[in-house]
Amino acid sequence: MATTIHEPPKVEERRLPGRGSPGNGDFRNLVPSDGKLPAVQDYAPAPAKTGIWVVLAAIAMSFAAFTSALIVRQGSAMDWHHLVLPRILYLNTLVLLASSVTLEIARRRVAVFMTGARTLDLSPARWLYVTLCLGLVFVAGQYAAWQQLRSEGLYLATNPASSFFYLLTAIHAMHVLGGLVGLTYVMRKLYRVVLRRSTLDTFSYYWHFMGILWVYLLLLLWMKL
Amino acid sequence: MHDTSTHAAAHHGPPTSFIRKHVFSLDHKVIGKQYYGLGLVAVIIGMVLSWVMRIHLAWTAYPIPGLHLLSGTGAPGNVMTPEFYLQVMTMHATFMVFFVLTVVPFAAFGNFFLPIHTGAEDMPFPHFNMMSFWTTFVAFCVMLLSFFVGDGPTLGGWTQYAPLSAVGAVAGPGQGSGVIIWATSIAIFCVGQLFGALNFIPNVLDLRCKGMSMWRLPMPTWAWFITSCMGLTSFSVLMPACILLILDHVAGTSFFVASNLVINDQLQPHSGGSTLLWQHLFWFFGHPEVYIAIVPGMGIVSHVLITNMRKPMLSHRVLVYSMGALAVLSYMVYGHHMFVSGMNPFSSLVFSFPTLLITIPSTVIVLVWIGSLYGAKLRINAASLFALGFISMFITGGVSGFFLAQPSIQILLHATYFVVAHFHFTMAIAALFGIFSGTYFWFPKMWGRMMNDNLGKLHFWLTFIGVYAIFMPMHYLGLAGNVRRYQAFVVDYMQPLVGVHQFITIAALFTGAVQLIFIYNFIHSRFWGEPAPENPWQGTSLEWSVPSPPPHDNFGGKHPVVYHDPYQYGVQSSTGDYLMQDSPEQVKGAQDEP
Amino acid sequence: MAKLLAVTIVVIAILSAIPIIRNTWHPLPDVSAHGQAIDDQLSETMWEAGISFLASQIILAWFIWRYSGNRPGEKTKTFPGGATGLVAAAVILVGVEVFALGIFGVKAWANIYFTPPGADAMPVQVQAGQFAFYFRYTGPDGTFGAIHPEMLSEANQNFYGIDTDHDSDAKDDIVTAEMAVPVNREIRLLMHSKDVSHSFYVPALRIHQDFVPGLDLQIHFTATKVGRYEIVCSQLCGLGHYNMKAYLSVLSQDDFDAWLKKQAALQ
Predict the structure, then answer these.
(1) Same structural domain, B119 and B244
(2) Does some domain include residue B60?
(3) Does A44 contact B592 at a Cβ distance shorter than 8 Å?
(4) A27, A83, B99, B494 — which has fewest CB within 10 A?
(5) CA nearest to B380 within chain C
(6) Contacting partners of chain A (3+ CB pairs under 8 A)
């Protein structure tokens, strides 16, 4: 059987995007074709972006599990007491959604900078501060909601509705706090002028997801409790 | 501020200090070996526990020397108490399922080889990867801790059915602190595995080298990818379940505990919880977990067999699609664990059909393996023997699934030794054979030395015969109605079966002892084995294109470029009957679809 | 060595099949009205699984025997059918096979779970607790007294928590530690757990149902043969799980009446 041996194609180093780098949507798996090998175009988004989707999927699955637990538990319950949601939750919702908006403003500012503006005024940082503050206000507001329930004599183990209320809001608040830790990391990076845009993007995915998740939880609690 | 397109994390330089190199290492290869070591420790614990159980089952009143070392109160006069038997059984299953069958085929081999197979220099998030191992390690230590607290580990079985697991110490020894420790450990373990999935999935999707399209990924990497998707969606359900269970214990909630339960003449303070809720949440995790244990083994076995058959599988894609189908179906079939557990009998029927359906992808995989053997030039070595053994085990375990998929037959066989035989053959023994096969095959690459192949073959023969002797008779016990999780057989119709149990025990002790050959071979080869060449088995995938063991960044600063499908065997190239993935050579007859 | 492996696989497969063919170990003989369908289903499945098992192990062994070793001058070959053929074979052979099994199995399942008990079925209640079964018969009034969990006490021998002093329904209830049923009479079994999950497994009766705490289930069956059988718990319920069992006596109607009278006298 005849075999043909080709010269190994020359791979130009500079055509390779950074090693291990994701680039943002570059065609990094393009085989240098010498006309005989099939060229493979393979689109590879940033691992950070894929990674955050993995994280969001895990969180979404967890809350799906809690949701199904709530529905099953309610379906089998003879002891279900209706729970009136504390009013402050609606205010908290607005705060959290506003924080998404401020984050998005910061991100837009960064995007403008990325398109070529060579100087960066620190206005994105200012908006990130606002986001951080709004996040803290949200958690404080949730705490106020728990206080209110406590003053009504509703504790974690009082009845299934209050169990689920504390459980879902507390776990969500923990995720929000985790997001705020991430936000301080992003801001530290920003001040050190080494922030990668994908880091900010990744964080904003997470943060917006917290907002969506909260709206979902609020609807669930409002309908089911 | 500048968006540097370099991914800093993947760029860490080789560490110099001992701690960064061997303990808190960011290198996926070191992490893989750490997982392997953890699995090895766990499998030894699990095996010793199973011996203790087996001896007790066969000779119930016979003292087992040294048993008091395991538990001060559980073994007066070295004879197990009934509760200690159940505690040992629970710990055997927990260590084996979580810390061996999940950790070794998936986390250990996956960490070591997935980045090399994709042509990446490391995982995308090495810090998370390091945390993945160390959280798993913490989970392991927490689980071990339960032997040393209060009244010992939980006795509720690895399935931890509520309300036995949720009402606290009143339900029995170990049901208080033991369950809390168990659930905490498992929740931590879930976090560790989610960190793992966080690395595996983006690595496969984003860090493939030039030319490495998805279809050019080798079989094990496909298997790990599918497994990490399953892990992502199932461990993230188990963790909430564990949180709810812990809350029922420590916070007095009633998620799983129904009203009006009277235990030891005490009316329990809980109300309204759902007994079946735990089972639904648990098995939604539990059934995919079975495939998390077995699918990596399928990938490893395909990889080993292809290399040793010197020809590719009949179809790479069919195997991948079948594994994917197993993964998807595994979420739809979990109800077959609950046919007689009080679920709506109509649901039982609904769950029975996807369960029967899952035999189709399983059969396709087995038929493709067997069909691929046709016309092969099969090399016999320890790795390929274990791979062939895997197929035999998987067939045996698979056909017993025909019975257990049917609700009507489960009326006879549910919770009997038939089930024990079934899941040991499929998820336990087959997965272990996958681990052994992978170890003999990859040891040269992982530790840079060859294992002794003759000892490996001896290990195979004794193990292969041994495990059939252990688990085949369990089918017969199940048919005769022998219920599992009994510490002694006081039921009249089970007493004649004790002879079978004694046979199984002897086989188990024999098979366990045989594993010493493996441990000796492993340790001896690790330090004194022959140095391994770069490509001892004439393999084609990228791990064989780098030195043994691979350098810190896997490819020594080079950027691998891939030109071929992963398995170009049976061709005539300048190197012999195979063509490396990164060889730019073009050969007639090579299947090279992108 | 490949040939040895092939022989070993075949020998193991045949040795494994021998006890099945000789029926060395088998389910206890069926004494229920509905069990025949389950037994048929079991033997049907045994045939199909057995043939699949033997055929695939033997073909595996044959290919290992035939295609091992580096046979110089011989090229590697591809299976004539190709992967498509095998997929088709799997879908057609196995798919049809298991689906047929599944569909026939529905009948056996429906016999038990989808047919309501007859109106004249005799109610018997079984209560599972750590680690014993207790049974309750209605007595002449045909109704069970209500259960008061707070009164339930093993120490006071009030195993069911019934109020015999104030509850007229409960006064004539007969609580026993052994179960007896008349032969050929349909029994409506009310299942109640007082503490954790248990199971009511009577292999001879082809009955297997878990107790769900907080949810009382009901099954029904007819025993067709006089004899003494065992009820065991198959759902892990704690340290005494292995010892949780009770006897079920299937008696002729006269014997049953006498037995029940004797039990009533003991209350």
Answers:
(1) yes
(2) no
(3) no
(4) A27
(5) C2
(6) B
